[in-house]
Request: fold
Amino acid sequence: MKIESLVIHGGIDGDEKTGAVNVPVYQTSTYKQPSFGHNTGYEYSRTGNPTREALEKLISDLEEGYAGFAFASGMAAITAVISLFKTGDKVIISNNVYGGTFRVLDKVFNNFNIGYKIVDTTDLEAVRNNVDESVKAIYIETPTNPLMDITDIEGISKIAKEKGIFTIVDNTFMTPYLQKPITLGADIVIHSATKYLGGHSDVVSGLVVVNTEELAKRLHFIQNSTGGVLGPFDSFLLIRGIKTLAVRMDRHNENSKIISEYLKSREEIEKVYYPGFEDHPGYEIQTKQAKGYGGVISFVLSDKIDYKKFLSNLELITFGESLGGVESLICHPASMTHAAIPYDIRQEVGIVDNLIRLSVGIENSQDLLEDLTSALKKSL
Ligand SMILES: Cc1ncc(COP(=O)(O)O)c(C=O)c1O
Reply:
């Protein structure tokens, strides 16, 4: 089945018992055991729930992995994955990972002596040189949030395999419709499903897909032990959202191409970060490893524009956290999504104060262009 059909019919399709075309919401915490020593395959919903399982099977099918796991947020998913490691282990992370990922490593896992090393993962030699005995995984986002750096997933996976360590890819920005890290050699894929997979800004959730039975067993143990599972109704909402992933991503791709070209042409804008530009340093790798360039664009406003006024003057584009919804969302990474990253590191990697991140929605592109033009004019 092709992915456009798989998003609709993958995982567990409908309900065998009644013929309902949608998987029911099994809103239950527990299950009746038919007799002593026997159960239906379900005992307690932290351990297993049929609606959650349908979602877990669906994401596993879409990512072409061995098994999927659903969590109460992207951060709960990341926390479960990092819990695979133990005291003394280290993880290499890309140099502009999502602020929350940095925070959980820096402020939570550091306390348990699970460390991290920040490396420019676009530079494969730098990655190779930084893998020492303590490094147990390379954790990448590609494109990165918010600077849209592109890392070669196949290149990283080769290094990790040579060294006997894991490759973990946060695939939130691309989704399996555009990029499938496991097919490129990765071991674990993570999603903030809050974003494109859910797609409607109405559910906070995280998903993980692993490529082996052994990792599946370990992750299920962690999921059940630590308990950050996704509830049945939110699982249903995600299944519903994923059904339209293909058409939504096509439109996100189309609109962001138009908006990125517009932004590049404006003199009020100093720089545009978009991996679909042929002069983007990661263009070739992105074109090779993904089916499109996604819906996120970051840009630096010139000094002439007051960024606070610009953000307040937008009318159609919503000023707020998050991305990947049907509606266009805009944010200020330095004070919002990436505020957890210390000022000096932010300056060093390019998360400057007049950097803006735009998640291009699926509205009419002309309406979006008009909103941007009017806000730029009002913010001089
Ligand atoms: C790339 C990326 N990964 C992980 C997360 C965390 O996900 P959540 O907000 O669902 O916990 C985010 C949130 O913005 C993100 O952008």
